[in-house]
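R.M. (postdoc): so does anyone remember the format we settled on? I'll just put the structure tokens first.
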């Protein structure tokens, strides 16, 4: 799953869970049954898991292009410059 796919999966999860929560509260209120509410929401959680957890092909529309190892050796990573600064001691008065 690429980065954009992860973002899409996160958005889908949030939207689906919120939607199923609203539907479950409505169904529970209409039937006056706490059990109906819990079962409706549990079904929504299972469906949300089946949609967002596996690595479906529509989550891979923006694959990352990795640098070939031989090319990486030709272009070494720049080393950070060493900047030594004197640390000042702060004393309380």
């Amino acid at each position: 799953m690429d980065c954009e796919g992860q973002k899409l999966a996160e958005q889908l999860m949030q939207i689906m869970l919120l939607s199923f929560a609203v539907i479950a509260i409505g169904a529970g209120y209409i039937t006056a049954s706490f059990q109906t509410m819990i079962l409706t929401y549990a079904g929504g959680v299972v469906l949300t898991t089946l949609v967002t957890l596996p690595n479906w092909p529509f989550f891979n529309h923006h694959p990352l292009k990795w640098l070939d190892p031989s090319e990486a050796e030709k272009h070494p990573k720049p080393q950070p410059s060493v900047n030594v600064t004197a640390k000042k001691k702060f004393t309380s008065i």
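R.M.: ...and that's the designed sequence above, right after the tokens. Also worth knowing: The chain is about 60% helix and 0% strand. Helices lie at 3-31, 34-52, 69-74.
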